[in-house]
Amino acid sequence: MNTYYLLISAALFALGAYGVLARRSAILVFMSVELMLNAANLALVVFAREQGSPAGQAVALLLIALAAAEVAVGLALVVAIYRTRESTLVDDLAELKG
Amino acid sequence: MIVFNLLAGALLLLTGFLSVYLRNAVHAALALAANFVVMGTVYMVLQARFLGWVQIIVYAGAIMVLFVFVIMLLHAAQAEVGFDPLPWMRPAALAVAAVGFLALAWALGAARAPLAAKASAALLKGGTALALGPELWNTWRYPVLLVAALLLVATVAAVALIRPGKEGA
Amino acid sequence: MLLLTILLPFLGFLTLGLFGRRFREPAPGVLASGLVLLSFLLVVYLALAGGARFAVGDWLPGIPFALLGDRLSIYMALVVTGIGFLIHVYAIGYMAKDPGYSRFFAYFNFFIAMMLTLVFADSYPVMFIGWEGVGLASFLLIGFWYQEWKNADSARKAFVVNRIGDLGFLLGMALLYKLFGTLQISAIREAMASSLVLPAGLALAGTLLFLGAIGKSAQVPLMVWLPDAMAGPTPVSALIHAATMVTAGVYLLARSSFLYANLPDVSYWIAVIGLVTALYAALAALGQWDIKRIIAYSTISQLGYMFLAAGVGAYWIALFHVMTHAFYKALLFLSSGSVIHALGGEQDVRRMGGLRKYLPRTHLHGLAGALSLAGFPLLAGFWSKDAIVSATLSYPFGGVGFYAVALFTAFLTATYAMRWYVLVFLGDYRGQGHPHEAPPVMTLPNDVLALGAVFAGFLALPKPLWNLIEPYLAPALAHVEVQELSPAAEWGLLLVGAAVALAGIYAGYAFFSNYFRRRVPAWYQSFERAGEQGFYADWLYNTFLVNPAKELAFFLGLSDRGLDGGYRYGALGVAALGRWLARLQTGYVRFYALLVLAFAAVFAIWGVIR
């Protein structure tokens, strides 16, 4: 059962990675990042169960809090950028190039 | 139990796929929310009940509502339109994701020597708040405090970033 | 007290250097002269008080800033400040109405301060400060009229040639420090006295120090800068390039006499170089037509005499000659200055002559100086020069060969001294214009100098008579075993010297008094042409040193350019690489994310496989 959920976690992580790369709206990129974070959380919970140690769960809890903080700042950034550029597309922010 | 596991796995993969596939941002957000809810139930099954409820309340509740709210606020439901400057990104992303999945799957599945599943699961005492609390406030005392401070900083930063009157908004 | 002596002229330098423009003529000159006079009085007081010491403990690590007023340095300082004061006064008149009036006196005071530092120094690094300081003053004053290329070039030449000698001084210092662990002169002297065995390498250190002296005192082979140094104003030539600075080399030898007295081989070469210099410059002086260059070559020649004396071990005689030479050479230069002044800048003796009528006072000064230089019996130059000539026989490092050449050079000296005098003052005036006598501010110092040039020799007379200088200086100099000549032999040598000098004087007078009216033998004309060029020393240096060095520099410049090119193309290559790599920097966040994730995947695979 543990390996099963670990494989599910890997699949979700890969889906999130695909989303981060393929999505063009900043908000959707963020959502994909959240998916990746959750996949990691799932792996942590599975490890905790396997080891019989609550440490994995504690870290997962902290990660959820971190994700909340990240989303707050990230979405604030998106809103701030939208205010100046009328766009949420990450490809519109391509001025800084060599 | 097996039925639940199979069903939960299928739902997780389906909603995860939908959340990165659906063109409408609101739909994608809802799919993600569903994914988080299922994830919460899976946590409960995996001896992490407190974490499961936190997942449902914080992720599926607070964070996803925030996402949906911002999507609505910015009229970004149909954002994935217009000229795509990197048309080759989609297959490249697919390739990277596939390679990443294979590597992870190998690492977590085939290449890993699973620990002997003792009565270890019982040690977690179901992962209730009562079981997790002492761990959090003993071993993880300082990280908890740090994360609390980080949340405060993030809140202040978020407010400061979108404060009106800045950047000529 | 010692420090004050140095600081007074330095104060003058600072004041005049910073605020000189606010003074009206002749205030800067009066101020500068007054400060030097005060310095002179202080030195007199020091001489009566019997000397002084001054030291600042840890000036450099292990090397104190030590000043020492012993009899040697006080003697030298008396010459420097005394003659210096007279020349300062003269310059008040000579430099009148020059736009750089206060600048001139600032430099002059700076020179006196640095010269006193050099003289009073009790450690070689302090002496080196003075040494370089007078070099700088010399450079500034040679190029005083820097608007003309020739003057600026002469200044640079003097500076560069001096640097060669200074390198020797520096290396010598380093070697001495290695040998003795200190650079304080009195400490080294004590170390030398207390140890019976000479440290190895001492001869090399002495030679290197001597190289410094060669450069400063314009000895062969570094003599080429001094004739060109006459580009500066005449008081500069008198003060720096005749009376004081150029004798610093002699002073260095005397100061280090405890070293050289133990180094017969080095001393021998000092004497040889001195002799060669004396002969060379005396011959070259016969070919000069510039009134100041004649005296410049005679200065080199007389410095050669001093080195000869120091080389044979007669340090006090060298210093005696320093003093008498300071008097009559300053007098000669200042008389030349008066002549140049009177003729409105004319320096060619071929357009002079007959000036006795126009410049009676200056004529007397010139006569006194020239006769003293020529060694006319009973004048100052006679006593000191004959002391040197006979010292080659009695002092330990001397020899008969030295004596013969020195005597022949004495003959030449008398001849060119008379040539100078005759061409300038006798005969008929060959130029245009109306010469006028110099003002009293210029003639009065010359009167004093003329007195010195005539009577200074009576301070030290041969054996049965009194000798004030040798016992006075003896404690400060190294003791050398003198093989005493009998009084009869000594006076006999003196008579020979007098006869030679008189013969030279007569020859010079007879040959040059109607030089322009008769045919001069062809061999003499070609000799004269060669002498005018200083026997092609400059040409030799240019051909064998300067030009090859220039070619080498040009060649090295080419290779340097090649090297630069290599670096430039290397840099261009790197820049091209950078531009190519910069294309990775697309600006698209998703592209960066792709790279991050792709490499994360690669590392994940690597981690798994490993």
What does this structure look like?
The complex is a heterotrimer of chains A (98), B (169) and C (610). Chain A has 98 residues and is mostly helical. Chain A has helices at residues 2-22, 26-51, 55-85. Chain A has one domain (2-91): Orthogonal Bundle (Helix Hairpins). Chain A contains three helices and no strands. The mean pLDDT of chain A is 88. Chain B is built from seven helices and no strands. In chain B, helix 1 packs antiparallel against helix 2 and helix 2 runs antiparallel to helix 3 (49-73). The mean pLDDT of chain B is 84. Chain C folds into three domains: 1-260, no CATH class; 264-532, no CATH class; 540-609, no CATH class. Chain C is built from 25 helices and two strands. Chain C has a two-stranded antiparallel sheet. The longest helix of chain C has 46 residues, at 537-582. Chains in contact: A-B, A-C, B-C. Chains A and B meet through helix 1, helix 2 and helix 3 of A and helix 1, helix 2, helix 3, helix 4 and helix 5 of B.
Number of domains of chain A: 1
Quickly name the level 1 CATH class of chain A. Mainly Alpha
Query: What is the tally of helical segments of chain A?
Result: 3
Q: What is the correct CATH architecture of chain A?
A: Orthogonal Bundle
Largest interface: A-B, 75 and 91 residues
Tell me, briefly, the overall form of chain A: elongated
Kindly, what is the distance between the CA atoms of the first and last residues of chain B, rounded to a whole number of angstroms?
55 Å
Number of strands of chain A: 0
- Identify the CATH homologous superfamily of the domain at 1-79 in chain B: NADH-ubiquinone/plastoquinone oxidoreductase chain 6, subunit NuoJ
List low-pLDDT spans of chain A.
none
Helix/strand/pairing category of chain A: mainly alpha
The secondary-structure class of chain B comes to mainly alpha
Level-1 CATH class name of the domain at 1-79 in chain B: Mainly Alpha
For this structure, the CATH topology of chain A is Helix Hairpins
The CATH topology assignment of the domain at 1-79 in chain B is Four Helix Bundle (Hemerythrin (Met), subunit A)
The portion of residues assigned to helices of chain A is: over 70%
Sheet-strand content of chain A, in percent, reads: under 5%
* Global geometry of chain B: globular
Mean pLDDT of chain A, to the nearest integer, reads 88
Query: What's the SSE pattern of chain B?
Result: HHHHHHH
